Amino acid sequence: MAKRTQTFVCQNCGSVTGRWQGKCEACGEWNTIVEESATAASGPPALRSPRKGRVFALEPLAGEAHETPRLPSGLPELDRVTGGGFVRGSVLLVGGDPGIGKSTLLIQAAAALAKAGHRAVYISGEEAVAQVRLRADRLGLAGALVELAAETSVEDIVATLSKGKPPRLVVIDSIQTMWTDTVDSAPGTVTQVRASAQALIRYAKTSGTAVILVGHVTKDGQIAGPRVVEHMVDAVLSFEGEGGHQFRILRAVKNRFGPTDEIGVFEMTGLGLQEVSNPSELFLSERDLGAPGTAVFAGIEGTRPVLVEIQALVAPSSLGTPRRAVVGWDPSRLSMVLAVLDAHCGVRLGSHDVYLNVAGGLRIQEPAADLAAAAALVSSLANAPLPADAVYFGEISLSGAIRPVAQPTARLKEAAKLGFGRAIIPEAGRADTAAESGLAITAIAGLSTMVADIAARGTRPRLAETRG
Ligand code: TYD
Ligand code: MG
Questions:
Q1: Is the CATH number 2.102.10.10 carried by domain 282-467?
Q2: Long-range contacts of 64-70 (CB under 8 A, 24+ apart)
Q3: Which atom of ligand 1 is nearest to 138's Cα?
Q4: What pLDDT shows up at residue 43?
Q5: How many angstroms separate the alpha carbon of residue 141 from the centre of ligand 1?
Q6: Which of 41, 163, 305, 310 has a CA positioned 20 to 30 A from the CA of residue 331?
Q7: Minimum mean pLDDT range among 218-232, 272-286, 404-418
Q8: CA of 268 to the centre of ligand 1 (A)
Q9: Does the beta carbon of 96 lie inside 6 Å of ligand 1?
Q10: Do residues 204 and 90 make contact, with C-beta atoms less than 8 angstroms apart?
Q11: pTM of the full predicted structure?
Q12: Could you tell me the fold of the domain covering 70-276?
């Protein structure tokens, strides 16, 4: 009989300690260590006499190619993020807040595959079959030949799936509800999640089925428990969105078979998730034309140009330490832009609260957004609306110079397509880009040029306000 031992496992990183501790020494998280019972068989291997190894055949790298390793899902926005479809035998983890639409997205993907004549299986550990059917009904997918089950035992699932022709796609919703007999811990604990994921990954590799695992996200945005699972799977996608918005953004966090900078944009409607093939139109659709403090940034997400509005509000502060709040952008990037505005352009915001928001729930990671953010900030401070038909891009260096950014032509073309008339862009590297876009180009070399320009049109001429 296997000896039972108590172990203490960090639910964040999965490291094991011999006793309970308040802080995990491996990852530094507090209150994440939980007691889990494990049979010695699943713990560190006991010393046993080594068994005689089985001889296996080694294969040449230049072996025969199998049939198309990628299977397009039928949802182009999803395929864009995965890098062209589901890879045979690969395992994908989809994370996201509760209610963001993970189940909806995956039942739609499974239905699209089934419609194309492939075998697709959807296993729900959270909802009853009737609930999944009800949702599919609402989505108009009731006719799709997706095979459903409400199951949580990994052994039963693998046994069932191994019967007959292997499916092309299996969705497991969610990995936290799965449990396997091989370990004793409760479902949802790191040990269970890891063992269940391992079993499902093994199934995917041996059968060639693409497996999608749904993972829940904790309040600080990490996929709960399965931090460890992130290392085991081939790709991690994160499904994001802002509470009040209907936009949903699918982003690859890790991808062994494709790029990680592409985003897929969806809109949650009464009929499920609709794909948005031109996100710029969506992000700019509710624009406050002519209000001070808004600037349009011509960005690039992966291979696709995306225009998005950056909103800033600058107001005198009543606090000793003024507030800096950012949604959708890097707060340290904002601090840097504020410091450059202060040091090189005489824009003093030390006694002002500063709020910056990227409209539509998009999260921008490019430094190219610096210039648009600075324009929005100065526009708000000076109460000077920016021209409604202008787009901005450029990276601000600490010296106050504007540095060129990647793919200026694609950015300008997208702006021209959406009816914008002018662009404020870096002076460096403009020659080859400006000619063909058809926009009126203002090329600037330093941030102070743009600041002076905006301030001249404002109703608060003196930018540098100092109090007390
Ligand atoms: P769901 O896919 O259950 O989210 P998750 O699996 O990530 O927890 O999505 C649930 C939300 O989506 C719910 O708040 C209602 C909304 N929704 C729609 O707006 N339209 C629809 O057609 C469907 C199916 C859901
Ligand atoms: Mg769900």
A1: no
A2: 66/208, 70/257
A3: 22
A4: 47
A5: 15
A6: 305
A7: 218-232
A8: 8
A9: yes
A10: yes
A11: 0.77
A12: Rossmann fold (3.40.50)
